[in-house]
């Protein structure tokens, strides 16, 4: 079994890698897998954009996270700008991870 440090230095898995792995493990056509994973990602993005949570039991929750308004400094322009409150996508892994 590999350690976390060994896995951490590996290249991240891309969508193409994910599609290939799902296709290989389940003996499904790679094109069909690609269509399904793209649809899954679109649904997750759409729901998060609406402010809804998407939860996969045993995996985690995709949600939005509120960022408070704050002042930021633009160093090159030597000025301070107000950044409005905004929301960002976030992932919270389940306790089983």
Helices and strands, in order, run as HHHEEEEE
Averaged pLDDT, please?
90
The beta-strand count equals: 5
DSSP strand content:
25-35%
What is the terminal separation in angstroms? 17 Å
- What percent of residues adopt helix (DSSP H or I)? 25-40%
Radius of gyration: 19 Å
Shape: elongated
Short description:
The chain has 97 residues and is α+β, with helices and mostly antiparallel strands.
Give your account of this protein's structure.
38% of the residues lie in helices and 30% in strands. With 97 residues, it is α+β, with helices and mostly antiparallel strands. The strands form two sheets. It has a three-stranded antiparallel beta sheet with strand order 1-2-5. Strands 3-4 form a two-stranded antiparallel sheet. A hairpin with a 3-residue loop joins strand 1 (54-56) and strand 2 (60-67). Helix 2 (15-26) crosses helix 3 (30-49). The radius of gyration is 19 Å and the shape is elongated. The model has no long low-confidence stretch (mean pLDDT 90).
Task: Chart the SSEs and their pairings.
Layout lengths: L3 H5 L6 H12 L3 H20 L4 E3 L3 E8 L2 E5 L4 E5 L2 E8 L4
Antiparallel strand pairs: 1-2, 2-5, 3-4
Key features?
single chain, 97 residues, alpha+beta, three-stranded antiparallel sheet, two-stranded antiparallel sheet, 3 helices, 38% helix
């Amino acid at each position: 079994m590999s350690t976390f440090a060994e896995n951490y230095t590996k290249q991240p898995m891309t969508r193409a890698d994910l599609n290939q792995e799902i296709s290989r493990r389940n003996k499904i056509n790679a094109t069909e897998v690609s269509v399904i994973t793209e649809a899954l990602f679109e649904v997750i993005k759409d729901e998060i954009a609406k402010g809804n949570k998407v939860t996969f039991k045993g995996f985690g929750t995709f949600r939005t996270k509120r960022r408070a308004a704050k002042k930021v400094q633009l160093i090159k322009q030597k000025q301070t700008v107000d950044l409005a409150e905004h929301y960002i996508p976030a992932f919270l892994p389940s306790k089983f991870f």
